[in-house]
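Q: Please design a sequence for this.
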């Protein structure tokens, strides 16, 4: 099968990194796979080329109308069996460029967010359903994303939808056994990997860390990510008088190394479509402290010992302090590691190909 994945960028992000994993494993299963970015830089170029996935770089940063013409020309010349679309801009471009060519269309919805983020809900819903006039086969990365799409009327009634979870990156070493905490050692290195945006609810994590810091002043919190809340988060850290212990590190292309040097991951999001960082932290052997909501529950399971109620900074602070107990620390890390079996990347690739074969 000859597959073309169309995606907004090849820059580091959850959807983009997961496409590397999916395309690599589709190639391992004998498919001929290519990817085409629409804009941005080629941060993940090496990851795709090393996986024997071709990159079609004719569209990137070109005028949208010209992109339609170029993509249409590519689809005619290369005779792809199907076009798999990732993220809203790719859905729009792919559905327009493929009109009348007989190319089968599939789309993955990666986020529990509006199709048109800055529009009123009814308008986003209308745009989403309009785009799906030509895209009947939809993959949702979690039950939470499916629920969002249905409740917000972003799907057409006749949509053929299947839930297919993300897979972990098999090229990253799984730390065996998971990390442990020695009796004489305190838990001092917390990490967050998240956009500095309201969805990620970083304020709650910072306030919880301030409570933790009152008991363990040697603790530090490192926050990797960029976003429009940077200034207000820095001001919050200053107001809490923990500027010497909270560090904003910006973006990193070496997340596996970041996790390796940390002792605990915090994910305080209001909601997640999936949360790829959870799988990455599991592979690093880290215990996880996470808000109990959305797809986070699907990934970690109902019995995860590191859950706290969303926005409850006091409960999160208690969970942080509890992890100074080596037994609780190991129990959390062991539980998290054992969840990886549910997210085999080859299973994700096989399920996706099966959907291709069974979809209209």
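A: Design:
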């Amino acid at each position: 099968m000859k597959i073309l994945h169309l995606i907004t960028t090849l820059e580091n992000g959850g959807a983009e990194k997961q496409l590397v994993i999916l395309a690599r494993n589709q190639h391992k299963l004998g498919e001929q796979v290519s990817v085409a970015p629409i804009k941005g830089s080629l941060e993940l170029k090496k990851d795709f080329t090393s996986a024997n996935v071709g990159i079609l770089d004719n569209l990137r940063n070109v005028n949208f109308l010209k992109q339609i013409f170029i993509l249409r020309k590519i689809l005619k010349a290369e005779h792809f069996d199907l076009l798999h679309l990732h993220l809203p801009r790719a859905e729009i471009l792919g559905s327009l460029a493929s009109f009348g060519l007989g190319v089968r269309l599939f789309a993955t919805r990666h986020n529990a967010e509006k199709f048109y983020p800055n529009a009123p809900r009814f308008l986003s819903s209308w745009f989403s359903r309009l785009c799906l006039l030509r895209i009947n086969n939809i993959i949702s990365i979690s039950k939470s994303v499916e629920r969002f799409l249905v409740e917000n009327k972003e799907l057409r009634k006749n949509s053929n939808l299947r839930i297919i979870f993300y897979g972990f990156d098999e090229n990253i070493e799984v730390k065996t056994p998971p990390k442990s905490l020695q009796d004489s050692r305190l838990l001092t290195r917390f990490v967050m990997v998240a956009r500095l945006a309201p969805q990620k609810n970083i304020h709650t994590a910072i306030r919880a860390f301030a409570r933790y810091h009152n008991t363990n002043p040697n603790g530090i919190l490192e926050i990797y990510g960029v976003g429009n809340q940077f200034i207000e988060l820095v001001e919050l850290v200053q107001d809490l008088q923990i500027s010497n212990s909270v560090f904003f590190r910006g973006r990193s292309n070496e997340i596996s190394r970041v996790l390796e040097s940390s002792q605990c991951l915090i994910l305080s999001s209001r909601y997640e479509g999936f949360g790829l960082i959870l799988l990455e932290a599991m592979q690093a052997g880290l215990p996880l402290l996470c808000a109990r909501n959305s797809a986070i529950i699907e990934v970690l399971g109902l019995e995860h010992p590191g859950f706290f109620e969303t926005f409850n900074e006091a409960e999160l602070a208690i969970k942080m302090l509890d992890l100074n107990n080596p037994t609780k620390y190991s129990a959390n890390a062991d539980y998290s590691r054992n969840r990886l079996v549910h997210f085999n990347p080859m299973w994700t690739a096989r399920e996706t190909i099966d959907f291709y074969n069974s979809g209209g």
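Q: Thanks. Anything notable?
A: The chain is about 40% helix and 15% strand. The chain has two domains: 2-167+344-358, 189-342.
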